[in-house]
Amino acid sequence: RTPAAMPAFRQVGEKQLPQEVVFMCWSPKRDLIALANRAGEVLLHRLANFQRVWSLPPNENTGKEVTALAWRPDGKILAFGLADTKRIILCDVEKPESLHSFSVDLSITYMHWMEVTEESSVLTSFYNAEDESNLLLPKLPALPKNYSTTAKIFSEEKSDEIMKLLGDVRLNALVLGGSSGFIEIYAYGMFKIATVNGVAGSCRGLCLSSDLKSLSVITEIRDSSDSEAEITYFQASKLDTSLLSSYLPEVTRMARKFTHISTLLQYIKLSLTCMCEAWEEILMQMDSRLTKFVQEKNTTTSVQDEFMQLLLWGKASLELQALLMNQLTVKGLKKLGQSIESSYSSIQKLVISHLQSGSEALLYHLSELKGMALWKQKYESLGLDASGIEEAITAVGSFILKANELLQVIDSSMKNFKAFFRWLYVAMLRMSEDHVLPELNKMTQKDITFVADFLTEHFNEAPELYNRKGKYFNVERVGQYLKDEDDDLVSPPNTEGNQWFNFLKNSTHLKESPLLFPYYPEKSLHFVKRQMEGIIDQCLQKPADVIGRSVHQAVCLSLYKISQSEDSTPQLFKLPFLWNDKTSNIHYVLFTILENSVSKIHILRRHTDTSRSVSNRILAVEFGNILNNSITESSDSRCYSCLDAHFYDDETVTVILKENVEQEGKERVLAQLPLSSVYTDEDQDRKFIWDSTERLDERRGEIPTCTVVLENQWRVLENMKAQYVSVNGIRKVSCVLSSNLRHVRVFEMDVEDDGEIEEEEEEETT
């Protein structure tokens, strides 16, 4: 082949996929592309040969209907939104695991994750000082490896996976758009810094400029009066977000603190999950066996008395003998003793090393936040409220108290059970007339009193408990703290005779003191944790509302209508497409309008200069004859419709074109359109005066059109009904998807050809 006939762009992979693809999104930093398919699966593929890296199957908890994808600017985390559960999941790029998730009020239709590029000396000093908390706080211990999937996030080898979630200290923001005008901005993808109101319709595209000065939104507004063909308008509204940009250092600092707090709450939640898993069902055996014993026995003697007689006289009734020897058995007793010991010590370790260090770190960050809130001139206008943070600090204090109470309960339970089991073991050996080792036989008066106290306190029947929990006994006291329910504790700790409690009761001033954390003796650890999360959530909410209210709509333009028939295509791929040129503060909107059965690509260019004056320019682009076939001599009869268009970089748009001539084998073309060929100097006189009260497509005939003849930046896509394209100009790659949503081809776009590119090997289609 002569070099002239060489197709531009090198194909590096092709695949037929089993499921229809509904989203594709290139990683900003690596040659990886994320896909979501109709089955609700999220997949990660490599550019080379389109090889699959991993897949995350849909599941009940997260959801099955993916409606948006976005990469964190550092390419380490992939976010996706689910419509059925209204959740946003942040997933690790290294392996298909959810690192964090949160719920939103409405289902998400679009996501955009951007990084702030603004520089200032204040910001730089903050970026450098960010790690001071690492110097002051001990490193959080990794969660144990042997617990279920929940704990995998902080696995032993990488205890700092929690830091992955925090990511780089430079501010980045995940912007979510959804149905009925729902728009929210999350700093670092975790903390909500703005809830934007005043936008109508369901979001189709979003773009937040990298200096945070403007937010562009495209929405689809449905008119319900005519139910047959619902009419849809598109609007490009540019929202003014000056509060965010003028307080950038403060917003960054506050958001970073909140992100630390969210991450720590996640850590505490997982530590608690591990504790619940360490607590085993076998520990309930004692309660259930004794309950059954009560239901079946014929005598009137209470269970407590039966055991007391055994303790004092060494004689047991036949019924108690049957319970101990046939149901509990010596072997079973040993096993139960070991289970209780290992289970309790695991829970104890988790409370001491994880819950306490997590809560202390939480207290540290909340106290710092309170300090920020008291610096009113900087933070008051962002909605930071010191009294709300004070409440959150108090709630964390109550949680720490509850964790300490649990430690005391574990400690006394371990002592009690040890003594009780040791005594019962000897008694059972005697019943079976086995040899009792002399060292086991020694039981002092003190030991006997200890066991008698344990029996008195733990072995009394409670009929009202049977109605609540279906058991008469609550011998095992630790499990109740780990139950995730609103019920009060079955056996709250006994505070009678506690000098501190009596002192507090009698002192009126101390009761109300803000220095003392409130204590909830009746409640479980889970309950206090939920209460703490609620209060912290409450104080994290306010800035989002305040900043959201400061966002003002600067302009609202109606673009065009779409017909009902187009609605069968998946939401994702439909134009319009938004782009923000970071260097020159120009916003572009790409969309197509059908004119004489040719769909022309239109480029709307909004430029804001330094004096804040805005100019709107709009151009339609048509493509001249690319394939000079000799069939049609008159070149003007051959037109191309634009099927899809995306910005490749600030200077280029990637398009997919289709021939309009009705003939067999209509070719599809992948092409690069340089903006320099569209915006030339002689355009200046072809101004289009746009009256924003009218819809743009009603004046399509007046829009200046520019005809572009592509030189060599195009390639025919043979044997493929190409319809959609996804590109990444940083990595210089593109992915083309066919109209049946299953056939994919990937290309390297900027190939330096030396005239000797090897013939492409046809990829075997799977």
Protein model, in words:
- The chain is α+β, with helices and mostly antiparallel strands.
- Helix content is 33%, strand content 27%.
- Strands 18-19-20-21-25 form a 5-stranded mixed beta sheet, with no helix packed on it.
- A hairpin with a 5-residue loop joins β8 (87-92) and β9 (98-103).
- Residues 1-5, 148-159, 566-573, 629-637 and 753-766 have low confidence and may be disordered.
- Residues 238-434 form the Anaphase-promoting complex subunit 4 long domain.
- Residues 578-748 form the Anaphase-promoting complex subunit 4 C-terminal half WD40 domain.
- Its main location: nucleus.
- Belongs to the APC4 family.
The stretches of 5 or more residues where confidence is low (pLDDT under 50) are 1-5, 148-159, 566-573, 629-637, 753-766
Q: Judging from the principal axes of the Cα atoms, what is the shape?
A: elongated
* Termini gap: 28 Å
Give the beta-strand count: 29
The value of Rg in angstroms is 34 Å
Q: Give me the secondary-structure category.
A: alpha+beta
- On the 0-100 scale, what is the average pLDDT? 80
Strands side by side in the biggest sheet: 18-19-20-21-25
Estimated helix fraction: 25-40%
Largest sheet: 5 strands, mixed
Q: Roughly what fraction of the amino acids lie in strands?
A: 25-35%
Total number of helices: 18
Describe this protein with a few key phrases.
single chain; disordered N terminus; 766 residues; alpha+beta; cell division; elongated; 5-stranded mixed β-sheet
In a nutshell, what does this entry contain?
By secondary structure, the protein is α+β, with helices and mostly antiparallel strands. Helix 7 runs antiparallel to helix 13 (445-458), helix 8 packs across helix 9 and helix 9 packs antiparallel against helix 11.
